[in-house]
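step=encode ok
step=design start
structure_in=
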């Protein structure tokens, strides 16, 4: 069970540098012909209303890593939300074992080589100062319309 956190702070999501470090850690355990790491990180919130009042509220945060291992024309995917080294290594090893057991895919295509991407212009980081008694701060990332940024 996780420990409760203050509702005055925003749920934490992984930043670009953290995702890159996590992907490199997972790839360091890989021995398959090809390995793809996909990372999703985010939070959700909910509020319940009863008799025109807020009755409960909550949020959760999760980060998941999908590991796709390819051996020849065989592949498998394993998902985990445990981000420590031992769990990542176990997930990579499981993906590789499952790939060796899976049937060959006659339409299998190789992964793309290393890619270079421009920094996205659709994400804006904004800080806001809460006016609550605790004076908490939160950082918010949001996706905005690219036309707004260029115009």
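sequence_out=
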């Amino acid at each position: 069970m996780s420990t409760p956190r203050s509702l005055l702070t925003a749920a934490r999501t992984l930043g670009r540098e953290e995702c890159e470090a996590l992907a490199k850690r997972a790839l360091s355990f890989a021995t398959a012909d090809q390995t793809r790491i996909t990372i999703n990180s985010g939070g959700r919130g909910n509020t319940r209303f009863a008799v025109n009042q807020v009755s409960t509220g909550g949020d959760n945060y999760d980060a998941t890593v999908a590991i796709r291992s390819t051996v020849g024309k065989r592949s498998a995917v394993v998902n985990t939300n445990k981000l420590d080294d031992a769990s990542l290594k176990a997930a990579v090893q499981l993906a590789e074992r499952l790939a060796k057991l899976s049937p060959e895919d006659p339409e299998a295509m190789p992964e793309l080589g290393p890619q270079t991407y421009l920094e996205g212009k659709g994400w804006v980081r904004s800080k806001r100062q809460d006016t609550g008694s605790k004076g908490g701060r939160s950082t918010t990332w949001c996706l905005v319309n690219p036309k707004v940024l260029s115009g």
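step=design ok
step=annotate ok -> The domain at 16-106 is CATH 3.30.2290.10 (PmbA/TldD fold).
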